[in-house]
Design goal:
This protein has two domains: 278 residues, 3-Layer(aba) Sandwich (Rossmann fold), CATH 3.40.50.300; 245 residues, Rossmann fold. Helix 8 links the parallel strand 10 and strand 11. The N and C termini lie close together (9 Å). It has a nine-stranded mixed β-sheet, with helices on both faces. The chain is α/β, with parallel strands linked by helices and 563 residues long. It is 34% helix and 22% strand. The protein contains 18 helices and 23 strands.
Protein backbone atom coordinates (compact mmCIF):
# COMPACT_ATOMS: atom_id res chain seq x y z
CA UNK A 1 0.00 0.00 0.00
CA UNK A 2 1.23 3.44 -0.79
CA UNK A 3 1.79 6.22 1.71
CA UNK A 4 -0.68 9.08 1.77
CA UNK A 5 0.83 12.10 0.10
CA UNK A 6 0.25 15.83 0.24
CA UNK A 7 1.92 19.00 -0.89
CA UNK A 8 4.36 18.85 2.00
CA UNK A 9 6.19 15.87 3.44
CA UNK A 10 6.79 15.57 7.19
CA UNK A 11 10.00 17.31 8.24
CA UNK A 12 11.98 17.26 11.45
CA UNK A 13 10.84 19.91 13.91
CA UNK A 14 13.38 21.07 16.46
CA UNK A 15 11.70 21.67 19.82
CA UNK A 16 12.89 24.27 22.30
CA UNK A 17 15.19 21.68 23.86
CA UNK A 18 16.75 18.41 22.78
CA UNK A 19 14.03 15.79 22.86
CA UNK A 20 10.35 15.63 21.99
CA UNK A 21 7.33 17.44 23.32
CA UNK A 22 4.64 15.53 25.22
CA UNK A 23 0.86 15.87 25.11
CA UNK A 24 -1.22 14.10 27.77
CA UNK A 25 -4.95 13.60 27.17
CA UNK A 26 -7.26 12.77 30.07
CA UNK A 27 -11.02 12.26 30.17
CA UNK A 28 -13.72 13.39 32.55
CA UNK A 29 -17.42 13.09 33.48
CA UNK A 30 -18.09 9.80 31.63
CA UNK A 31 -16.18 7.07 29.84
CA UNK A 32 -16.30 6.40 26.08
CA UNK A 33 -16.03 10.09 25.22
CA UNK A 34 -13.77 9.42 22.29
CA UNK A 35 -10.35 10.28 23.72
CA UNK A 36 -8.70 7.89 21.27
CA UNK A 37 -10.42 9.48 18.30
CA UNK A 38 -9.54 12.98 19.51
CA UNK A 39 -5.90 11.97 20.03
CA UNK A 40 -5.76 10.43 16.56
CA UNK A 41 -7.31 13.50 14.96
CA UNK A 42 -4.85 15.80 16.73
CA UNK A 43 -1.96 13.58 15.66
CA UNK A 44 -3.12 13.76 12.06
CA UNK A 45 -3.28 17.57 12.22
CA UNK A 46 0.20 17.86 13.73
CA UNK A 47 1.57 15.64 10.97
CA UNK A 48 0.15 18.06 8.45
CA UNK A 49 2.28 20.74 10.11
CA UNK A 50 5.37 18.69 9.25
CA UNK A 51 5.87 16.90 12.55
CA UNK A 52 6.64 13.28 13.30
CA UNK A 53 4.12 12.05 15.83
CA UNK A 54 4.14 9.05 18.19
CA UNK A 55 0.93 7.78 19.82
CA UNK A 56 0.42 5.93 23.09
CA UNK A 57 -2.39 4.64 25.34
CA UNK A 58 -2.19 3.98 29.09
CA UNK A 59 -4.95 1.63 30.28
CA UNK A 60 -5.89 1.37 33.98
CA UNK A 61 -7.21 -2.21 33.93
CA UNK A 62 -5.19 -4.94 35.68
CA UNK A 63 -5.06 -7.36 32.75
CA UNK A 64 -1.55 -7.43 31.30
CA UNK A 65 -3.19 -6.88 27.92
CA UNK A 66 -6.70 -7.24 26.47
CA UNK A 67 -5.80 -10.51 24.71
CA UNK A 68 -7.61 -12.72 27.23
CA UNK A 69 -10.72 -10.51 27.48
CA UNK A 70 -14.06 -11.36 25.95
CA UNK A 71 -14.74 -8.83 23.15
CA UNK A 72 -18.03 -7.98 24.87
CA UNK A 73 -15.92 -6.70 27.79
CA UNK A 74 -13.45 -4.54 25.91
CA UNK A 75 -14.16 -4.57 22.18
CA UNK A 76 -11.69 -5.86 19.63
CA UNK A 77 -8.05 -6.62 20.32
CA UNK A 78 -5.84 -4.56 18.03
CA UNK A 79 -2.61 -6.31 17.01
CA UNK A 80 0.55 -4.35 16.28
CA UNK A 81 3.15 -5.30 13.68
CA UNK A 82 5.56 -6.40 16.43
CA UNK A 83 2.97 -8.76 17.90
CA UNK A 84 1.43 -6.90 20.85
CA UNK A 85 -2.24 -7.39 21.71
CA UNK A 86 -3.46 -3.88 22.49
CA UNK A 87 -6.40 -1.55 23.00
CA UNK A 88 -8.65 -0.77 20.04
CA UNK A 89 -7.79 2.95 20.27
CA UNK A 90 -4.43 2.09 18.70
CA UNK A 91 -6.41 1.30 15.56
CA UNK A 92 -7.58 4.91 15.48
CA UNK A 93 -3.98 6.04 15.85
CA UNK A 94 -2.80 4.08 12.83
CA UNK A 95 -5.83 4.84 10.68
CA UNK A 96 -5.54 8.61 11.20
CA UNK A 97 -1.76 9.06 11.32
CA UNK A 98 1.46 7.62 9.94
CA UNK A 99 2.65 6.75 13.45
CA UNK A 100 3.74 3.14 13.80
CA UNK A 101 2.30 1.65 16.97
CA UNK A 102 4.31 -0.98 18.83
CA UNK A 103 4.20 -2.78 22.17
CA UNK A 104 5.51 0.46 23.71
CA UNK A 105 2.35 2.20 22.50
CA UNK A 106 0.12 0.51 25.07
CA UNK A 107 0.71 -0.05 28.78
CA UNK A 108 -1.72 -1.39 31.37
CA UNK A 109 -1.77 -1.43 35.16
CA UNK A 110 -1.18 -5.18 34.96
CA UNK A 111 1.85 -4.74 32.73
CA UNK A 112 3.33 -1.99 34.94
CA UNK A 113 2.89 -3.95 38.18
CA UNK A 114 4.11 -7.13 36.51
CA UNK A 115 7.33 -5.36 35.50
CA UNK A 116 7.86 -3.86 38.96
CA UNK A 117 7.23 -7.16 40.75
CA UNK A 118 9.62 -8.89 38.34
CA UNK A 119 12.35 -6.39 39.20
CA UNK A 120 11.66 -6.80 42.92
CA UNK A 121 11.95 -10.58 42.66
CA UNK A 122 15.29 -10.25 40.85
CA UNK A 123 16.58 -7.92 43.55
CA UNK A 124 16.87 -4.92 41.22
CA UNK A 125 15.66 -2.56 43.95
CA UNK A 126 18.41 -3.60 46.39
CA UNK A 127 16.08 -4.42 49.25
CA UNK A 128 13.93 -1.27 49.05
CA UNK A 129 10.31 -1.23 50.17
CA UNK A 130 8.34 -1.16 46.89
CA UNK A 131 5.62 1.50 46.77
CA UNK A 132 3.25 3.13 44.28
CA UNK A 133 5.38 6.27 44.57
CA UNK A 134 8.08 6.18 43.34
CA UNK A 135 8.37 2.66 41.92
CA UNK A 136 5.06 2.29 40.06
CA UNK A 137 5.05 5.89 38.86
CA UNK A 138 8.68 5.58 37.74
CA UNK A 139 7.79 2.51 35.69
CA UNK A 140 4.93 4.43 34.07
CA UNK A 141 7.23 7.32 33.22
CA UNK A 142 9.75 4.88 31.72
CA UNK A 143 6.94 3.53 29.55
CA UNK A 144 6.14 7.03 28.33
CA UNK A 145 9.79 7.62 27.44
CA UNK A 146 9.96 4.26 25.63
CA UNK A 147 7.48 5.59 23.05
CA UNK A 148 9.69 8.50 22.04
CA UNK A 149 11.88 7.00 19.31
CA UNK A 150 12.66 9.90 16.96
CA UNK A 151 9.26 11.57 17.26
CA UNK A 152 8.85 15.31 17.63
CA UNK A 153 5.61 15.04 19.59
CA UNK A 154 4.28 12.13 21.67
CA UNK A 155 0.56 12.04 22.39
CA UNK A 156 -0.26 9.87 25.42
CA UNK A 157 -3.88 9.04 26.15
CA UNK A 158 -4.74 8.12 29.74
CA UNK A 159 -7.59 5.63 29.80
CA UNK A 160 -10.49 5.77 32.21
CA UNK A 161 -12.16 8.77 33.79
CA UNK A 162 -10.76 11.29 36.27
CA UNK A 163 -11.93 10.23 39.72
CA UNK A 164 -11.49 6.50 39.07
CA UNK A 165 -9.18 4.91 41.63
CA UNK A 166 -7.59 2.73 38.95
CA UNK A 167 -6.13 5.61 36.98
CA UNK A 168 -4.62 7.53 39.91
CA UNK A 169 -1.05 6.17 39.52
CA UNK A 170 -1.05 7.19 35.83
CA UNK A 171 -2.32 10.70 36.62
CA UNK A 172 0.30 11.09 39.35
CA UNK A 173 2.99 9.86 36.94
CA UNK A 174 2.16 12.42 34.27
CA UNK A 175 2.09 15.14 36.94
CA UNK A 176 5.63 14.18 37.93
CA UNK A 177 6.59 13.95 34.27
CA UNK A 178 5.74 17.60 33.73
CA UNK A 179 8.07 18.62 36.54
CA UNK A 180 10.92 16.41 35.36
CA UNK A 181 10.70 17.31 31.68
CA UNK A 182 9.73 20.96 32.17
CA UNK A 183 6.23 22.36 31.90
CA UNK A 184 7.17 24.09 28.65
CA UNK A 185 7.66 20.64 27.14
CA UNK A 186 4.42 19.08 28.37
CA UNK A 187 0.83 19.91 27.50
CA UNK A 188 -2.26 18.66 29.35
CA UNK A 189 -5.55 18.33 27.46
CA UNK A 190 -8.73 17.36 29.31
CA UNK A 191 -11.61 15.94 27.28
CA UNK A 192 -14.93 16.32 28.99
CA UNK A 193 -18.68 16.17 28.38
CA UNK A 194 -21.07 19.10 28.45
CA UNK A 195 -24.34 17.56 29.55
CA UNK A 196 -27.55 18.82 27.93
CA UNK A 197 -30.76 18.99 29.94
CA UNK A 198 -33.55 18.61 27.42
CA UNK A 199 -36.24 19.89 29.78
CA UNK A 200 -34.29 23.09 30.52
CA UNK A 201 -32.91 23.26 26.97
CA UNK A 202 -29.47 24.21 28.16
CA UNK A 203 -25.94 22.87 28.48
CA UNK A 204 -24.67 22.28 32.00
CA UNK A 205 -21.04 22.89 32.95
CA UNK A 206 -21.08 21.66 36.56
CA UNK A 207 -19.92 18.06 35.80
CA UNK A 208 -17.01 19.49 33.81
CA UNK A 209 -16.13 21.90 36.61
CA UNK A 210 -16.07 19.01 39.08
CA UNK A 211 -13.97 16.85 36.77
CA UNK A 212 -11.38 19.59 36.33
CA UNK A 213 -11.50 20.16 40.09
CA UNK A 214 -10.58 16.52 40.67
CA UNK A 215 -7.70 16.90 38.23
CA UNK A 216 -6.45 20.04 39.96
CA UNK A 217 -6.57 18.25 43.34
CA UNK A 218 -3.98 15.84 41.98
CA UNK A 219 -1.83 18.73 40.84
CA UNK A 220 -2.62 19.02 37.13
CA UNK A 221 -4.14 22.18 35.68
CA UNK A 222 -5.28 21.44 32.11
CA UNK A 223 -3.88 23.72 29.42
CA UNK A 224 -6.72 22.96 27.00
CA UNK A 225 -10.30 21.88 27.61
CA UNK A 226 -11.96 19.94 24.78
CA UNK A 227 -15.72 19.75 25.29
CA UNK A 228 -17.81 17.00 23.71
CA UNK A 229 -21.30 18.34 23.13
CA UNK A 230 -24.49 17.67 21.20
CA UNK A 231 -25.28 21.38 20.96
CA UNK A 232 -23.06 24.37 20.14
CA UNK A 233 -21.48 26.20 23.06
CA UNK A 234 -22.47 29.81 23.62
CA UNK A 235 -19.99 32.54 24.49
CA UNK A 236 -21.44 32.52 27.97
CA UNK A 237 -20.73 28.80 28.38
CA UNK A 238 -17.17 29.26 27.12
CA UNK A 239 -16.55 32.13 29.54
CA UNK A 240 -18.01 30.16 32.43
CA UNK A 241 -15.81 27.15 31.72
CA UNK A 242 -12.78 29.40 31.41
CA UNK A 243 -13.48 31.08 34.75
CA UNK A 244 -14.27 28.00 36.82
CA UNK A 245 -11.77 25.62 35.19
CA UNK A 246 -8.86 28.10 35.11
CA UNK A 247 -8.45 27.73 31.35
CA UNK A 248 -8.14 30.75 29.06
CA UNK A 249 -11.24 31.26 26.84
CA UNK A 250 -9.34 30.56 23.63
CA UNK A 251 -8.29 27.17 25.03
CA UNK A 252 -11.88 25.98 25.50
CA UNK A 253 -12.47 23.89 22.38
CA UNK A 254 -15.87 22.73 21.17
CA UNK A 255 -16.02 19.16 19.83
CA UNK A 256 -19.49 18.65 18.42
CA UNK A 257 -20.87 15.21 17.62
CA UNK A 258 -20.26 14.64 13.89
CA UNK A 259 -23.26 13.82 11.69
CA UNK A 260 -21.82 11.66 8.94
CA UNK A 261 -18.42 10.11 9.58
CA UNK A 262 -15.74 10.13 12.27
CA UNK A 263 -13.32 11.34 9.60
CA UNK A 264 -14.91 14.77 9.94
CA UNK A 265 -13.36 15.15 13.41
CA UNK A 266 -9.90 16.41 12.30
CA UNK A 267 -11.48 18.99 10.01
CA UNK A 268 -13.76 20.17 12.82
CA UNK A 269 -10.85 20.48 15.27
CA UNK A 270 -8.87 22.34 12.63
CA UNK A 271 -11.72 24.83 12.30
CA UNK A 272 -11.66 25.24 16.08
CA UNK A 273 -7.93 26.01 15.89
CA UNK A 274 -6.81 23.17 18.16
CA UNK A 275 -3.69 22.37 16.13
CA UNK A 276 -2.37 25.95 16.15
CA UNK A 277 -3.22 26.29 19.84
CA UNK A 278 -1.16 23.18 20.62
CA UNK A 279 1.77 24.46 18.56
CA UNK A 280 1.70 27.82 20.32
CA UNK A 281 1.55 26.34 23.80
CA UNK A 282 4.43 23.95 23.08
CA UNK A 283 6.55 26.64 21.45
CA UNK A 284 6.60 24.89 18.08
CA UNK A 285 6.41 26.49 14.66
CA UNK A 286 4.67 24.84 11.73
CA UNK A 287 7.05 23.79 8.96
CA UNK A 288 4.46 24.36 6.23
CA UNK A 289 2.75 27.53 5.09
CA UNK A 290 -0.68 25.90 5.16
CA UNK A 291 -1.49 22.31 6.17
CA UNK A 292 -2.68 20.31 3.15
CA UNK A 293 -5.97 18.68 4.12
CA UNK A 294 -7.18 18.15 0.56
CA UNK A 295 -6.79 14.38 0.66
CA UNK A 296 -8.68 14.20 3.95
CA UNK A 297 -11.44 16.39 2.51
CA UNK A 298 -11.75 13.96 -0.40
CA UNK A 299 -12.22 11.15 2.10
CA UNK A 300 -15.00 13.03 3.86
CA UNK A 301 -16.62 13.98 0.57
CA UNK A 302 -16.59 10.34 -0.59
CA UNK A 303 -18.15 9.30 2.72
CA UNK A 304 -20.88 11.96 2.66
CA UNK A 305 -21.63 11.90 -1.09
CA UNK A 306 -21.30 8.30 -2.31
CA UNK A 307 -22.46 7.32 -5.78
CA UNK A 308 -24.42 4.32 -4.50
CA UNK A 309 -24.87 1.87 -1.63
CA UNK A 310 -24.00 -1.80 -1.22
CA UNK A 311 -25.22 -4.11 1.54
CA UNK A 312 -22.68 -6.45 3.10
CA UNK A 313 -23.62 -9.06 5.68
CA UNK A 314 -21.19 -9.55 8.57
CA UNK A 315 -21.75 -12.89 10.29
CA UNK A 316 -20.29 -13.13 13.79
CA UNK A 317 -21.04 -13.98 17.40
CA UNK A 318 -20.06 -10.58 18.85
CA UNK A 319 -22.43 -8.62 16.62
CA UNK A 320 -24.25 -7.02 19.56
CA UNK A 321 -21.19 -4.88 20.40
CA UNK A 322 -20.07 -2.65 17.51
CA UNK A 323 -16.56 -2.23 18.92
CA UNK A 324 -15.97 -6.00 18.84
CA UNK A 325 -15.39 -5.76 15.08
CA UNK A 326 -14.33 -2.10 14.99
CA UNK A 327 -11.44 -2.46 12.52
CA UNK A 328 -13.52 -4.73 10.27
CA UNK A 329 -16.27 -2.14 9.96
CA UNK A 330 -13.77 0.67 9.41
CA UNK A 331 -11.95 -1.31 6.71
CA UNK A 332 -15.27 -2.01 4.96
CA UNK A 333 -15.96 1.72 5.02
CA UNK A 334 -12.51 2.30 3.51
CA UNK A 335 -13.28 -0.19 0.76
CA UNK A 336 -16.45 1.77 0.16
CA UNK A 337 -14.51 5.03 -0.02
CA UNK A 338 -12.21 3.54 -2.65
CA UNK A 339 -15.25 2.72 -4.78
CA UNK A 340 -17.31 5.79 -3.81
CA UNK A 341 -20.04 3.62 -2.33
CA UNK A 342 -21.63 3.60 1.10
CA UNK A 343 -21.36 0.21 2.77
CA UNK A 344 -24.57 -0.70 4.58
CA UNK A 345 -23.94 -3.33 7.23
CA UNK A 346 -26.29 -6.21 7.81
CA UNK A 347 -25.19 -7.68 11.12
CA UNK A 348 -26.06 -11.35 11.47
CA UNK A 349 -25.65 -13.19 14.77
CA UNK A 350 -24.14 -16.58 13.95
CA UNK A 351 -25.56 -18.05 17.19
CA UNK A 352 -29.11 -17.63 15.93
CA UNK A 353 -28.51 -18.38 12.28
CA UNK A 354 -30.93 -21.00 10.90
CA UNK A 355 -29.56 -22.69 7.75
CA UNK A 356 -33.11 -23.14 6.49
CA UNK A 357 -33.63 -19.37 6.40
CA UNK A 358 -30.41 -18.29 4.67
CA UNK A 359 -32.08 -17.47 1.35
CA UNK A 360 -34.39 -15.04 3.09
CA UNK A 361 -31.76 -13.74 5.51
CA UNK A 362 -29.19 -12.93 2.82
CA UNK A 363 -31.61 -11.83 0.13
CA UNK A 364 -30.28 -8.71 -1.54
CA UNK A 365 -26.84 -8.65 0.07
CA UNK A 366 -23.92 -7.82 -2.19
CA UNK A 367 -21.31 -9.67 -0.19
CA UNK A 368 -20.78 -11.71 2.95
CA UNK A 369 -17.92 -11.38 5.45
CA UNK A 370 -17.05 -13.66 8.35
CA UNK A 371 -14.57 -12.11 10.82
CA UNK A 372 -12.22 -13.77 13.30
CA UNK A 373 -13.19 -15.21 16.64
CA UNK A 374 -12.52 -17.92 19.18
CA UNK A 375 -14.57 -20.78 20.57
CA UNK A 376 -17.17 -23.12 19.11
CA UNK A 377 -20.26 -20.99 19.74
CA UNK A 378 -21.81 -19.91 16.45
CA UNK A 379 -19.30 -21.78 14.27
CA UNK A 380 -21.83 -24.00 12.49
CA UNK A 381 -23.75 -20.87 11.51
CA UNK A 382 -20.60 -19.41 9.99
CA UNK A 383 -19.85 -22.61 8.09
CA UNK A 384 -23.41 -22.63 6.74
CA UNK A 385 -23.01 -18.98 5.66
CA UNK A 386 -19.77 -19.79 3.81
CA UNK A 387 -21.49 -22.64 2.00
CA UNK A 388 -24.43 -20.41 1.07
CA UNK A 389 -22.08 -17.78 -0.42
CA UNK A 390 -20.29 -20.48 -2.40
CA UNK A 391 -23.51 -22.01 -3.73
CA UNK A 392 -25.00 -18.64 -4.72
CA UNK A 393 -21.85 -17.06 -6.17
CA UNK A 394 -22.06 -14.22 -3.63
CA UNK A 395 -18.70 -12.53 -2.86
CA UNK A 396 -17.29 -14.04 0.33
CA UNK A 397 -14.50 -12.70 2.53
CA UNK A 398 -13.36 -14.95 5.39
CA UNK A 399 -10.89 -13.49 7.89
CA UNK A 400 -8.96 -15.76 10.28
CA UNK A 401 -11.75 -18.01 11.65
CA UNK A 402 -13.73 -17.02 8.55
CA UNK A 403 -11.01 -18.60 6.41
CA UNK A 404 -11.07 -21.72 8.58
CA UNK A 405 -14.86 -21.99 8.28
CA UNK A 406 -14.50 -21.82 4.49
CA UNK A 407 -11.96 -24.63 4.64
CA UNK A 408 -14.27 -26.78 6.79
CA UNK A 409 -17.16 -26.13 4.40
CA UNK A 410 -15.03 -27.15 1.39
CA UNK A 411 -13.88 -30.33 3.11
CA UNK A 412 -17.43 -31.32 3.97
CA UNK A 413 -19.16 -30.28 0.74
CA UNK A 414 -16.44 -30.90 -1.84
CA UNK A 415 -14.53 -33.84 -0.34
CA UNK A 416 -17.42 -35.57 1.42
CA UNK A 417 -15.66 -35.38 4.79
CA UNK A 418 -18.80 -34.95 6.88
CA UNK A 419 -16.77 -34.91 10.11
CA UNK A 420 -14.32 -32.24 8.98
CA UNK A 421 -13.81 -29.74 11.79
CA UNK A 422 -11.18 -27.89 13.82
CA UNK A 423 -9.35 -29.29 16.81
CA UNK A 424 -10.07 -25.97 18.51
CA UNK A 425 -13.67 -27.12 18.88
CA UNK A 426 -13.21 -30.89 19.13
CA UNK A 427 -9.83 -32.37 20.09
CA UNK A 428 -11.02 -35.80 18.99
CA UNK A 429 -12.44 -34.81 15.60
CA UNK A 430 -11.96 -37.38 12.86
CA UNK A 431 -10.87 -35.01 10.09
CA UNK A 432 -9.09 -31.99 11.62
CA UNK A 433 -8.69 -29.86 8.51
CA UNK A 434 -7.84 -27.07 10.97
CA UNK A 435 -5.29 -28.13 13.56
CA UNK A 436 -3.18 -26.71 16.36
CA UNK A 437 0.19 -25.38 15.25
CA UNK A 438 3.00 -27.72 16.44
CA UNK A 439 4.71 -25.07 18.58
CA UNK A 440 1.35 -24.22 20.20
CA UNK A 441 1.07 -27.72 21.66
CA UNK A 442 3.72 -26.79 24.23
CA UNK A 443 1.93 -23.60 25.34
CA UNK A 444 0.36 -23.53 28.81
CA UNK A 445 -0.13 -19.78 29.35
CA UNK A 446 -2.93 -18.25 27.26
CA UNK A 447 -1.90 -14.60 27.31
CA UNK A 448 0.30 -13.32 24.48
CA UNK A 449 1.29 -16.79 23.24
CA UNK A 450 -0.56 -17.05 19.91
CA UNK A 451 1.01 -16.49 16.53
CA UNK A 452 1.06 -12.72 16.70
CA UNK A 453 2.28 -9.83 14.59
CA UNK A 454 3.39 -9.32 11.02
CA UNK A 455 4.57 -12.16 8.77
CA UNK A 456 5.37 -12.24 5.04
CA UNK A 457 3.04 -14.01 2.62
CA UNK A 458 3.87 -14.95 -0.95
CA UNK A 459 0.82 -14.42 -3.13
CA UNK A 460 0.05 -16.15 -6.43
CA UNK A 461 -0.07 -13.38 -9.07
CA UNK A 462 -2.83 -15.12 -11.03
CA UNK A 463 -5.39 -15.00 -8.21
CA UNK A 464 -8.00 -12.70 -6.77
CA UNK A 465 -5.65 -11.71 -3.95
CA UNK A 466 -2.70 -11.34 -6.29
CA UNK A 467 -4.60 -9.00 -8.59
CA UNK A 468 -5.84 -6.97 -5.62
CA UNK A 469 -2.41 -6.58 -4.03
CA UNK A 470 -0.50 -6.08 -7.27
CA UNK A 471 2.63 -7.54 -5.68
CA UNK A 472 4.03 -10.98 -4.96
CA UNK A 473 4.97 -10.61 -1.28
CA UNK A 474 2.88 -8.82 1.34
CA UNK A 475 3.18 -8.50 5.12
CA UNK A 476 0.07 -8.99 7.22
CA UNK A 477 -0.72 -9.28 10.94
CA UNK A 478 -1.82 -12.48 12.65
CA UNK A 479 -3.59 -13.55 15.83
CA UNK A 480 -4.38 -17.26 16.05
CA UNK A 481 -3.28 -20.66 17.38
CA UNK A 482 -4.84 -23.00 14.81
CA UNK A 483 -3.84 -23.42 11.17
CA UNK A 484 -4.90 -24.97 7.90
CA UNK A 485 -3.83 -28.63 8.10
CA UNK A 486 -1.42 -29.36 5.24
CA UNK A 487 -2.26 -33.08 5.47
CA UNK A 488 -5.50 -32.22 3.62
CA UNK A 489 -4.00 -29.64 1.29
CA UNK A 490 -3.61 -31.70 -1.87
CA UNK A 491 -7.14 -33.07 -1.66
CA UNK A 492 -8.69 -29.67 -0.92
CA UNK A 493 -6.86 -28.07 -3.85
CA UNK A 494 -8.07 -30.89 -6.06
CA UNK A 495 -11.62 -30.19 -4.88
CA UNK A 496 -11.36 -26.55 -5.95
CA UNK A 497 -10.14 -24.75 -2.81
CA UNK A 498 -7.04 -23.18 -4.26
CA UNK A 499 -4.10 -22.10 -2.06
CA UNK A 500 -2.99 -18.67 -3.29
CA UNK A 501 -0.95 -17.35 -0.37
CA UNK A 502 1.71 -19.07 1.74
CA UNK A 503 4.13 -18.18 4.54
CA UNK A 504 7.03 -19.94 2.87
CA UNK A 505 9.36 -20.28 5.87
CA UNK A 506 6.98 -22.65 7.66
CA UNK A 507 4.86 -23.63 4.63
CA UNK A 508 1.72 -22.29 6.29
CA UNK A 509 -1.34 -21.62 4.17
CA UNK A 510 -2.34 -17.97 4.40
CA UNK A 511 -4.90 -17.47 1.60
CA UNK A 512 -7.43 -19.80 0.01
CA UNK A 513 -9.77 -19.10 -2.90
CA UNK A 514 -12.66 -21.10 -4.31
CA UNK A 515 -12.33 -21.82 -8.02
CA UNK A 516 -15.17 -21.01 -10.41
CA UNK A 517 -16.50 -18.34 -8.09
CA UNK A 518 -16.69 -14.61 -8.76
CA UNK A 519 -14.95 -13.61 -5.48
CA UNK A 520 -14.38 -16.10 -2.66
CA UNK A 521 -11.31 -15.43 -0.50
CA UNK A 522 -10.28 -16.62 2.94
CA UNK A 523 -7.22 -15.21 4.71
CA UNK A 524 -5.59 -16.49 7.88
CA UNK A 525 -4.37 -13.01 8.79
CA UNK A 526 -6.15 -9.76 9.71
CA UNK A 527 -5.94 -7.28 6.80
CA UNK A 528 -8.29 -4.86 8.57
CA UNK A 529 -5.43 -3.76 10.85
CA UNK A 530 -3.58 -2.13 7.94
CA UNK A 531 -6.44 -0.27 6.32
CA UNK A 532 -6.70 3.53 6.41
CA UNK A 533 -9.32 5.91 4.98
CA UNK A 534 -6.61 7.44 2.77
CA UNK A 535 -5.10 4.03 1.97
CA UNK A 536 -7.89 1.41 1.81
CA UNK A 537 -6.62 -2.15 2.10
CA UNK A 538 -6.50 -3.78 -1.36
CA UNK A 539 -8.51 -6.84 -0.33
CA UNK A 540 -11.31 -4.75 1.19
CA UNK A 541 -11.38 -2.48 -1.85
CA UNK A 542 -11.57 -5.52 -4.15
CA UNK A 543 -14.23 -7.22 -2.00
CA UNK A 544 -16.48 -4.14 -1.94
CA UNK A 545 -16.06 -3.71 -5.71
CA UNK A 546 -17.05 -7.36 -6.23
CA UNK A 547 -20.05 -6.90 -3.93
CA UNK A 548 -21.14 -3.88 -5.97
CA UNK A 549 -20.84 -5.90 -9.16
CA UNK A 550 -22.92 -8.68 -7.64
CA UNK A 551 -25.69 -6.15 -7.02
CA UNK A 552 -25.32 -5.12 -10.69
CA UNK A 553 -24.02 -1.75 -9.68
CA UNK A 554 -20.65 -1.34 -11.26
CA UNK A 555 -18.31 0.79 -9.11
CA UNK A 556 -16.57 3.76 -10.65
CA UNK A 557 -13.11 2.84 -11.96
CA UNK A 558 -10.11 3.87 -9.91
CA UNK A 559 -9.79 4.88 -6.30
CA UNK A 560 -8.63 8.48 -6.29
CA UNK A 561 -8.47 8.88 -2.53
CA UNK A 562 -6.29 5.80 -2.24
CA UNK A 563 -3.56 7.26 -4.37
Amino acid sequence: MTQASGNSSPQKVTPSRSGPKHIFVTGGVVSSLGKGLTCAALGMLLEQHGMKVAMQKMDPYINVDPGTMNPFQHGEVYVTADGAETDLDLGHYERFTHATVTRDSNYTTGQIYNAVIGKERRGDYLGACIQVIPHITNEIKDGIRNARSDADVIITEIGGTIGDIESLPFIEAIRQFGIEEGRENCLYIHLTLLTYLRAARELKTKPTQQSVGKLREIGIIPDILVCRTEHPMTGEIRSKLSLFCNVEPGAVIEEMDVKNTIYEVPLMLREQGLDQLVLDKLGLVSRVDTPDLSQWRRVVDAAINPDREVTIAVVGKYIDLHDAYKSIYEALDHGGLANRVRVVLKKVNSDRLDPAELDTLFDGVGGLLIPGGFGERGVEGKIAAARWAADHDVPYFGICLGMQCATIFAARARLGLDDAYSREFDEQCIDPVIDLMPDQKKVTLKGGTMRLGSYPCRVEPDSIAGRAYGQDVVHERHRHRFEYNNAYRERLVGAGLRVTGVFEEADLVEIVELENHSWFVGVQFHPEFQSKPTEPHPLFSSFVAASCHHESREPQPGAEIAR
